[in-house]
Amino acid sequence: MNWTNVKLIFFREVRDQLRDRRTLFMIAVLPVLLYPLLGTSMLQMAQFVQEQSTKVLVVGATDLPESPPLFKGKHFADNLFDDASRSSLLEVEVLGQPADPEAPPAAELLARAQTVLAQGQCDAVLYFPPDFGPRLSLLRERLRLRGQRGSDVGPVEPASEVPSPEAYFNSANERSHVAQARVETILSRWREEIVRQNLVLGGLPESAARPFKLNDHDVADVGHRDAALWSKVLPFLLLIWALTGAFYPAVDLCAGEKERGTLETLLSSPAERSEIVWGKLLTIMLFSMATAVLNLLSMGLTGSLLLSQLPRFGPPPPLAPLWLLIALVPVSALFSALCLALAALARSSKEGQYYLMPLMLVTLPLVVLPMAPGVELNLGNSLIPITGVVLLLRAMLEGSYWQAILYAPPVIAITLICCLMAIRWAVDQFNSESVLFRESERLDLGLWLRQLWRERGETPTAGAAVFCALLIVLAHFFLSFALPQPPSLAATVATQMVLFGGSAILLSLLLTRNPARTLLLRWPALPSVSGAIFALPAAAILAVALHPLVSWLQFAVTRLYPVSAEIEKAIEKLFPASTPLWQLILIVGLAPAVCEELAFRGFVLSGLRHLGHKWRAIILSSVLFGVAHGILQQSILASLFGTVLGYLAVQSGSLLPGMVYHFVHNSLFVVVGRVMGNVTDAVVADYPALSWLLRREATDKYACDGPVLVVGGVLTAALIFYWCHRLPYRKSKEEVLQDSIREQSRLELATAQSEAASY
Q1: How far apart (Å, rounded) are the C-alpha atoms in residues 290 and 28?
Q2: In what order do the strands lie in the sheet with 54-59?
Q3: Nearest 10 degrees: Cα torsion 539, 540, 541, 543
Q4: pTM listed for this prediction
Q5: Per-residue pLDDT tens digits for 610-645
Q6: 392-418: per-residue pLDDT in tens?
Q7: In 3D, which of 109, 137, 102 has the Cα closest to residue 125?
Q8: Contact 51/89 with Cβ under 8 angstroms?
Q9: 544 CA to centre of own chain
Q10: For residue 449, with 0-12 CB atoms within 10 Å meaning exposed, 13-18 middle and 19 or more buried, which class applies?
Q11: Which of 265, 345, 373, 720 shows the smallest number of beta carbons within 10 Å?
Q12: R_g over Cα of the chain
């Protein structure tokens, strides 16, 4: 790569962006104006955000005790409020005064009050049953006598229990909600006053009801308390503005150049496609970082002025700018590469702007996840892209440096891998002429369907493969709610056959000209008949050899991401211990081995091979295969062993070895689970050799130990490198083309280097 060309392209793109007034406004002017304007608006609107008074109708307030008082004039008593001045916020109107001999019955007054409440003329209704006051007075009288004469008065009779008051409110009215909450608080405090007086009447101290209280002591100093708050706000804003700042320049540098007709001139220059991508990427990173920094500075200045008026709220930690700038570099690189690849895919600037929402929908959950209660920086969370960066940044802002140093390596490694993959995707987008020069077209559904039918290929397109996988994921999601929980065994098998196998077969018939080739329904394409026959037993042996390693990976995944108790109970209900072993093998082993392989190693993998890269198709199909599994831990393991299944399918050119591997792999988990469940300490004591092969886990169950893992690993390596790797797999047309392009580029580079050396 010639970095001189990269520098020239970088300066060219920066100059073009600085000449664009819209870009300068979005990056420099808008952040400076936005937050002061928002702060001014908040100050102006604060005068309108005031507590409004509410009106409460009270029915049946007769014979209430005079002490403690509940009412004072047209309001509740002042001592029932934290602040006596707030008593005016709750206006009271008592219906049916005790002194009025012609007052209607309480039931009629209650019906009238409910009508008034429904019409919105009051905000809440408080109803005391007719015998509330007398029974409360009787209870207090008996308590008074008990306090004077001792326990010979006897216990309080059940008939003297006081009935409960009732509150009516309108849930469709916000003011009614507020009134109900205020009334509930007032009655709770009034009840506490009555309890206190009842204890005195009964000759008991007030501490009898509350013998002790808990005194809280916050040992965190002011700086750490403020740092904990800022650590949740600043990383979120940093990542959102880095993404937003990268997206619009990326759209203008790719889709905008397509519209202006300047992209062809750049592509015809001596610079390589990778050099063009790096020049544009550095430009987008520059503007992404500038947008994030300017927004944080403007928001920080405005926020510090506003929040300084609040008590017990301090500035962010002194080292916060340093940690934010360090984290901004890899985050901007990742977002810039993603935005550049998406912008290259867009036909126009308008279409490119539509891609911001899907990118936001994917990114936001990863940014918001660290804000959830109980989510902290550990090994499992540090392996999640973007989430690990947010958690690491939060630990640095909170001053947990030892924890941050401990988990910084996995966070950096995952972020670097994601950056490299995103950059590689962007380079591949620029290397594809069909992507760069796609023309905008209006959608005509009928014409599109006819064209789709006429232009069917031997195997599906990459878009059809992704569509099939997403269709399965969505259908599986909705079926999981439609089926009874837990689903029956017959329903599980039917779901596999219809959802996975049926979708693959139907789409193969509709979207391809050769369904058998699409689904790889043929004998392994090996040079000799004996080699083809050996392929199926070899796949079974490979599954057995890999089983200890997969079991260890399953143990590691469940340690990183523990399975919840609800999921474990659901699995136990789905596959109870009383289920016959042959049924479990049929449901867990045979049905997925046939149906899932037809879908993901058949239709999906055949379509993704049109991308021109064998391993890219294998890994992408494995990721989609993992997403189709609803449980996170199962998805991770499915993605890992799906890579082996895809490799078998590509190398052998047949779906049969993958089916055999899948069947043996799943069946082994069922059989070994039953066998290991019967292994106890007594069995191990009777057979001492088992102590060398098995280890006891925290769940008091036994699993394969080191020697078994070593033997399985050696056998796996032998099968993969000395059998599977040597199979003469058949390349697709796109893979042959990409190999030719790479070979031509290598020859041109070697020629250029030799010519440069001769001068």
Answers
A1: 8
A2: 71-72, 75-76, 90-95, 54-59, 124-127, 166-169
A3: 90
A4: 0.76
A5: 888 888 899 999 999 998 887 888 888 899 889 989
A6: 988 888 888 888 899 999 999 999 998
A7: 109
A8: yes
A9: 35
A10: exposed
A11: 373
A12: 36
